From TrEMBL:
Pathway: Carbohydrate degradation; glycolysis; D-glyceraldehyde 3-phosphate and glycerone phosphate from D-glucose: step 2/4. InterPro entries: G6P_isomerase_prok (IPR010551), RmlC-like_jellyroll (IPR014710), RmlC_Cupin_sf (IPR011051). It comes from Biomaibacter acetigenes. Keywords: Gluconeogenesis, Glycolysis, Isomerase. CDD domains: cupin_PGI (cd02218). Pfam families: GPI. One of its GO terms (molecular function) is glucose-6-phosphate isomerase activity. The lineage of its organism: Bacteria, Bacillati, Bacillota, Clostridia, Thermosediminibacterales. It catalyses: alpha-D-glucose 6-phosphate = beta-D-fructose 6-phosphate. SUPFAM superfamilies: RmlC-like cupins. Belongs to the archaeal-type GPI family. This is glucose-6-phosphate isomerase. Its EC number is 5.3.1.9. The keyword Isomerase applies. GO terms for biological process: gluconeogenesis; glycolytic process.
């Protein structure tokens, strides 16, 4: 039988994005070193430190039809070479499911692409919501040199995460710093 949750609430701090009640999942550089295009640079950094790239909340919502998974995602400021800190990014396993993100703090982009090769980058700024339509892979990127990028996300709880495609092929586009500004470039490693 499907689990049915009782109503509940949870705190998310508007400055840190973190909850006092729940533990966040953390992704360090060592968990995603191959996802940055300058893998050599990532390797050099890992010789001395293993920076925390982002954290996010998995609320334990049952992955069943009719439920909504939600939480905050916090991408820290920093770069690997000239590529900004970012999330791994994923398609939904149930490709025909959308997701919405609301930016609470920071400055960045949601980079998106479809299996057919369309791509888009929508800006994150406090108070802006970004709609990720069904079929679009999505990755949050923090372009601020100092502030974390904090977003609140919600998606169909049975959507699932398909990381495989992005782990092996990457995104078609990258957002990197050039002359002190974020620019979209072709991913030299995309195949
Ligand atoms: O799942 P990724 O690509 O590591 O990115 C993490 C973010 O995306 C989500 O998986 C939701 O799409 C969240 O759990 C989190 O905000
Ligand atoms: Fe998602």
């Amino acid at each position: 039988m499907n689990e049915i949750l009782r109503p509940f609430d949870i705190d998310f701090d508007l400055t840190t994005g973190l909850s006092r009640l729940k533990k966040a999942s953390k992704r360090y550089l060592s968990n995603m070193a191959d996802m940055f295009y300058d893998t050599e640079k990532a390797g050099d950094i890992l010789k001395n430190e293993d920076p925390l790239i982002y954290e996010f909340y998995e609320m334990g919502i049952p992955e069943t039809v009719g439920d909504i998974a939600f939480g905050t995602s916090i991408v820290y400021p920093g770069k690997i070479g000239n590529e900004y800190f970012m999330t791994k990014g994923h398609f939904h396993t149930v490709l025909e499911t959308a997701e919405v993100y609301f930016c609470i703090k920071g400055k960045g982009y949601m980079l998106m692409e479809t299996p057919e090769g369309q791509w888009d980058a929508q800006e994150f700024a406090p108070g802006k919501a970004v709609y990720v339509p069904k079929r679009w892979a999505h990755r949050s990127i923090n372009v601020s040199p100092t502030e974390p990028l904090i977003t609140f996300f919600a998606f169909r709880a049975d959507a699932g995460h398909d990381y495989g495609t992005i782990e092996t092929k990457g995104f078609r586009k990258l957002i990197v710093e050039k002359d002190g500004r974020p620019v979209v470039i072709d991913n030299p490693r995309w195949s």
